[in-house]
User: Which sequence fits this backbone?
């Protein structure tokens, strides 16, 4: 796939490193360039060693070298690495890469085939460009938090770093598109991604709703404000399921398969508008219909009837289920300390290629190896 492609990952935390891992999963040669002490994600929320959860999630299959860019010698090594690189990824604070002579403008002038990928918080131009940005700031300022959570509680962040993760995938997409263009024109590119733009893009449907309905989307917790049942959580005998059957034919199937076909003609529920207006009563009726069914039996029955549903699982149960039902979509990730993680593979396949296991790098583990490669490259023209 991307065999032979050389990628330099200067990233910290999630956005740039996750893009680098996508390229590594596609078999690119990804060199992770870390400062003394390593990527800050190594010990974020973790003290046992230098491969904590955040680092473990986004850095498998890379090689690590430590460079202190404050030192002229190490800056020289970084520039030597750039000379033979196809892609550079970074999400440093505004101005940091430029301070070390590694900014996009300087490097692309010297190496016009280079694909330079940058992630910022609030864009690369304009009055907010100098602002520091983290996932939570983008969730807040994009409007994402305003529509997440219960109507009678504070706005709530999405329970994981959704904007950072989406930014990494957006950056990887841009880099791959730029590589395709380079194959045609021979020219590199500067691919820029901002967290605030990624968050806004994720809310495209809500932008449309706000303008077409002339009202902001309401914060309603589970469920969707204008559809029912839609993403509604309903209790069964041994847990909860989520159900979406807001199209009339789907709601009729739902009622029929649970033994209450007449409920679809009940005046409270005979169309979507009525179901939205009487959501509380609707959920009570559904809970009564599911009271004697396990979550697995309920979902089996509903799925067979063509109704969208899912068991609301705890993460551990979801992990166990993935290992039992789709082990081919998991990869083994050895890490320092003789730990072995099972992690989701890249969620795509090309020509049915099997995902490959890949280890996490110890800090600086491949420094000598990478420097030796550089030395051989320096000798090659005269060899």
Assistant:
């Amino acid at each position: 796939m991307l065999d032979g492609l050389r990628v330099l990952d200067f990233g910290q935390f999630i956005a740039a490193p996750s893009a680098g891992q996508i390229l590594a999963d596609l078999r690119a040669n990804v060199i992770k360039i870390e400062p003394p002490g390593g990527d800050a994600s190594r010990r974020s929320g973790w003290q046992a060693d230098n491969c904590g959860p955040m680092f473990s999630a986004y850095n498998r299959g890379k090689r690590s070298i430590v460079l202190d860019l404050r030192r002229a010698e190490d800056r020289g090594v970084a520039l030597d690495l750039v000379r033979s690189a196809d892609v550079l990824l970074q999400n440093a604070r505004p101005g940091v890469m430029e301070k070390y002579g590694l900014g996009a403008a300087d490097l692309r002038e010297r190496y016009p085939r280079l694909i330079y990928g940058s992630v910022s918080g609030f864009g690369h131009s304009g009055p907010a460009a100098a602002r520091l940005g983290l996932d939570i700031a983008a969730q807040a300022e994009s409007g994402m938090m305003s529509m997440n959570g219960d109507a009678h509680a504070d706005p709530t962040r999405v329970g994981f770093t959704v904007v950072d993760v989406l930014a990494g995938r957006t950056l990887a997409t841009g880099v791959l598109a730029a590589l395709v263009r380079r194959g045609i024109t021979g020219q590199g590119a500067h691919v820029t991604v901002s967290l605030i733009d990624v968050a806004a893009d994720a809310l495209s449907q809500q932008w449309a709703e706000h303008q077409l309905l002339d009202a902001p989307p309401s914060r309603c917790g589970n469920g969707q404000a204008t559809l029912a049942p839609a993403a509604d959580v309903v209790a069964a005998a041994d847990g909860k399921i989520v159900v979406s059957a807001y199209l009339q034919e789907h709601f009729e199937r739902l009622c029929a398969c649970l033994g209450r076909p007449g409920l679809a003609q009940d005046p409270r529920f005979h169309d979507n508008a009525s179901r939205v207006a009487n959501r509380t009563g609707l959920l009570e009726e559904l809970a009564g219909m599911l009271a004697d069914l396990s979550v697995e039996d309920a979902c089996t029955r509903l799925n067979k009837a063509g109704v969208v549903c899912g068991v609301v699982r705890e993460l551990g149960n979801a992990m166990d289920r993935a290992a039992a039902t789709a082990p081919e979509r998991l990869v083994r990730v050895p890490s320092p300390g003789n730990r072995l993680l099972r992690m989701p593979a890249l969620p795509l396949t090309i020509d049915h290629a099997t995902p490959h296991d890949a280890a996490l790098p110890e800090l600086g583990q491949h420094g000598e190896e990478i420097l030796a490669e550089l030395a051989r490259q320096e000798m090659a023209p005269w060899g």
Notes: Residues 232-312 form a domain with the formyl-coa transferase, domain 3 fold (CATH 3.30.1540.10). The chain has 15 helices and eleven strands. The mean pLDDT is 95.
